[in-house]
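Lecture 7 notes: from sequence to structure.
We start with the chain below.
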Amino acid sequence: TGSAISLWLGWICWAREQLPSGPAPGGIPGSSPASAIAPQASPLHRLHNPSVVRSLIMSVDKNDPEGLLSVCHLYFAASDGVGGSEAPAEVLQTLAFATPLAERLYPLLSGLVKGPSIEAVYESLRPPTFNTPEAVRLRIFCSVYALKMQPMYDYEFFGPANPLNIEEVRTMTVFLNRLAYHFVTALPSKSSLEPAARALRASITSLVSLLYNRHCRRAILTGESPWIIPESKLLIRRAPVVDLGGDEDAGGGDSITGDVAMEADDDESMVAEEEAAEAPAARGREADGAAAAGGAAPNAEQVLEAVLEDIPHVLPFTDRVELLHNVILNDQAQRRDSRGPWAQAAMQRHQIRRNFLVEDGFAAFESLADEGALRDVFRVEFIGPDGEPERGVDGGGLFKEFMLTLNRAMFDPEFGLFSETSDRTLYPSISAYRTHDRANELYAFLGKVVGKAIYEMFLLEPQFSRVFLNRLLGRTNEVDDVAALDRELHRNMSRIKETTNLDDCFLTFSVSVSEAGYYEEIDLIPDGRNVPVTRDNLTRYFHLLANFKTNVQFQRQTLAFLSGLQCVIPLAWLKMFDPYELNILISGNTQGFDVLDLRRHTNYSGGYQDDTPAP
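Predicted structure tokens for the same chain:
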């Protein structure tokens, strides 16, 4: 019976908690007994067996939420009783892919999802301990559902393969996005969180990030800016310049002080009204969170840094760009000795021969030995074909001309460093190291060029593939990202998945690489070219193939490019952007401008009118 199972599970939980804390042989230092049980450490290791995990979940009656909670405590709750540990990886895999745990937990969360307000829901989870049954269910649902959705194709996510229908997904997404924002702004410091609170926050923000990343490929939510939290705009007004971190420490830190402040919005009265309406609630939330945690209210910089680290998408893109520019302007202001007008007058100009643009540009950037030199003003003097300097003083225009011309030359697929997708976006060429002897140095050089353009706040022309930008940001591309790189391959993968006779495809766990007259067969697993693809291992084959195509095959090129970019600007400064936004930051929007809007706002003079015929 359900009560007998619950009693038995309760006894098992008690027995597990009697195990000594600390890592067993093969365990993880600092982990809870649930995740530290080695195969020979205790008979309770049998509970990790997939068949036992499945049996436990299936033995609990659908109408027995307490029994289900007991199973959850068995694998997730720490011995201190606050439920802060994570289930072992093999158990989490079984719970996600071999049991209906996510489907069973979601209805139990309806009271939270449909709560009167996010503030009320947050308080019902009982901060700062977050040890209520609802908090445990929510954390486990987020962990299991996040793992379950990761390998799904987009069409599967929006179809019957998803344990939640699309309306449930949308309702849950809006709820979790709001809850994540409230949680992070109320308790921004991760280091001060109790174990259960840290685990709950990580599970919520991780799932929200996964949902947002999928939304970027194919919209989950509808409407204008559905992910933006309106009151988040106040954060940047309170802290226009913050520490975005460095590449050694991507987290938050002390605020940067300086003379730069965010420019006022055009409609100052509207801003004032928004602040008057939103500020009390925001201050109340911060104060309540601090009181719950037993400390002082977090300052504006701490809150903003936490939001940028965990859920930057809740802030409008334009506000994040302005924040980045404020940080850059603040950094430039601190370099007055080398960037001021008096310093520029005495600065040596880099001589660039137009018919040796790449060679001289490479040499010029190589002469800038450190971050400080790369952030200084770069002055150009063009040398004509006759060997004489061209007339003109570089007030910034010649430098931009040099950068744009250099980019056109080196990002051209004919140059051999980058290849072009069918939608004319760029990614590193897989044959670059056979085409250029110094390919690694050239990629690092281009990384410096792009980093310099970002730092000087002007746009370049190349549009990059999101697959490449994902890798720059340290993100892992998924199966559906193949389409951004090779639409034909993605279509073929879909056809193969639907075919009834897989044997006729003669597939093995290997991939053929051919470009610019070069051919190579690469194994996806040891001796993969001799391992046939079957219906049973097809999903694994697709994920290995997608991983190779989008993450592995140009990793060397990406690392070289990234090393150059980080010489100028820390990657941590760019982490608050998704790949689509980063592309806009580097190259601008491809949508162009509104001609009709331009016409409406044109002032005519000299006898010309709107209907005057063009000469």
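Points to note: The two ends are 90 Å apart (CA to CA). Confidence is low (pLDDT under 50) at residues 21-41, 79-83, 249-283.
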